[in-house]
Design brief:
The protein is 32% helix and 23% strand. It has 256 residues and is of the alpha+beta class.
């Protein structure tokens, strides 16, 4: 042990100074090297490459579900509209396309005696909406009504629209196309208009199954139960994406 006032040996002073410099260097070092930066970037790129397909798949799946749920809501609103106005509503879509329409059904029984808010064809052939008149009657509006065409989300298409042909729907199809499908008939070709689906004033509907598909072949079903008019949405088995043609969407016609 050294007495007070005597200098430390040279080796002890050197060791103490070395420890001080080492501690100072550790405290003052705040930056990173280029190699460390490149290593972090390489890890981030690798993680992004793994996550990107999964993220894209999640977005596509969400678009498919959103489209199915929105279509189901549109059909429910059309059912309520039919029950309120006493006039059937008709759904039509473009097979393997994105576009669809839901409009008032202009059958041979429609005239100006329909409930207020119904859509009819006047004497000039124009499609107009009825409105309440003075004295509690119903009159036709001076404003014409045009078909509203809607679209599914980007990348989503109508894979098929399958309907159960009954007496009422057969009459509707015959009015639309002149030909009622028979058992074993070929499915509609891509780009063609689907068979109409009717939603009636009594709350019932055409029994039908609408299948939506995304670019990955995943499918969602919007199902209509004829007697009750109940509308439900559920996911079904995926298909090979190569079996789904990509075409330019064409607008379904607004009415007969």
């Amino acid at each position: 042990m050294f007495t007070k006032g005597k200098p430390l040996p040279r080796s002890a002073r050197f060791s103490k100074r070395l420890r001080f410099l080492s501690m100072s260097h550790t405290r003052l070092r705040h930056g990173v090297t280029l190699i460390e930066i490149l290593l972090v970037l390489a890890i981030l790129v690798a993680l992004a490459g793994i996550a990107a397909p999964t993220f894209e798949s999640m977005i596509s799946s969400r678009r498919l579900r959103n489209s199915a749920e929105r279509l189901a809501n549109d059909l429910m609103e059309a059912r309520v509209e039919a029950m309120k106005n006493g006039q059937a509503q008709v759904f039509k879509a473009t097979i393997n396309g994105r576009e669809y329409s839901i409009d008032a059904w202009l059958g041979t029984y429609d005239d100006i005696d329909a409930s207020a808010g119904a859509t009819v064809q006047d004497a000039t052939g124009a499609i107009v909406e009825t409105e309440a008149a003075a004295g509690g009657g119903v009159a036709t509006s001076a404003e014409s009504t045009e078909s509203t065409v809607k679209e599914l989300e980007t990348g989503i298409q109508f894979a098929s629209v399958d309907t159960l042909i009954d007496t009422r729907s057969a009459a509707a199809i015959q009015t639309e196309t002149g030909n009622v499908p028979v058992a074993g008939a070929a499915a509609p070709v891509a780009g063609s208009e689907s068979n109409p689906i009717l939603l009636y004033p009594d709350g019932s509907s055409t029994t039908a199954q609408i299948i939506l598909a995304d670019e990955k072949g995943r499918q969602m079903v919007v199902q209509l139960r004829g007697v009750t008019g109940q509308i439900s949405v559920y996911q079904t088995t995926s298909v090979d994406p190569s079996t789904l043609p990509t075409i330019e969407a064409s607008s379904p016609s607004g009415g007969p």
